[in-house]
Amino acid sequence: MKDTFKHQGLRQQLVNVLKNKGITNEKVLQAIGKIPRHLFMDSSFLDHAYQDKAFPIAADQTISQPYTVAFQSELLQIEPGHKVLEIGTGSGYQTAVLCLLGARVFSIERQQELFKKTSRFLPKLGYRAKKLIFGDGYKGLPEEAPFDSIIVTAGAPFVPKPLLGQLKIGGRLVIPVGDDVQIMTMFIRKGPKEFEQHEFGEFRFVPLLEDKN
Question: Are 66 and 52 in contact (CB under 8 A)?
Answer without folding.
Answer: yes
